[in-house]
Amino acid sequence: MSFKTLGTISIVVALLVLFSSMFNPIVSVAIATIALIGLGAYHLLGKESKPLDVPVSKQTEEKEQNKQAILDLMKSGNQPLTNEHLRQMSGVSEATATRYLDELEKEGKVKQVGKTGAHVFYEKI
């Protein structure tokens, strides 16, 4: 829901509450309560893909595509993926490869095998 839509709904509800309070305060309270519960439930139940249509940056989209490419590469490959393999295949820097693999591990999509050094590799979960 955009800021404009949310603002319009809020103004309409506020006017309904204002005018209904002149006739019956109980109806006014009911309208306000229903409106607040409805908007709150809409946000809590995740009916939006992103809060208030915040645009996703091109860099963020590219990063997510690169991370998905890593997962696809792990699906098709017969051997475990190392940082070095990832750098050679994708052309990213060592720091970027490490960051992508760390993020995928935190997201629960890959598992690091080994602690440090050349013997560390990653497996798809």
Topology:
Elements: H1 3-23, H2 25-44, H3 58-76, H4 83-90, H5 94-106, E1 110-113, E2 121-124
Antiparallel strand pairs: 1-2
Helix pairs in contact: 1-2, 4-5
**Which of globular, elongated, flat, extended, rod-shaped describes the shape?**
rod-shaped
Count of individual beta strands: 2
What CATH architecture of the largest domain do you see? Answer: Orthogonal Bundle
Count of helices? Answer: 5
Strand order of the largest sheet: 1-2
Mean pLDDT over the full residue set = 81
Radius of gyration: 25 Å
What fold name stands as the CATH topology of the largest domain?
Arc Repressor Mutant, subunit A
Could you write a compact summary of the structure shown?
By secondary structure, this protein is mainly alpha-helical. 65% of the residues lie in helices and 6% in strands.
Describe the structure.
- The protein is mainly alpha-helical.
- It folds into two domains: 3-53; 58-124, Winged helix-like DNA-binding domain superfamily/Winged helix DNA-binding domain (Arc Repressor Mutant, subunit A, Orthogonal Bundle), CATH 1.10.10.
- The protein has five helices and two strands, in the order αααααββ.
- It has a two-stranded antiparallel ribbon.
- The protein is rod-shaped.
- The model has no long low-confidence stretch (mean pLDDT 81).
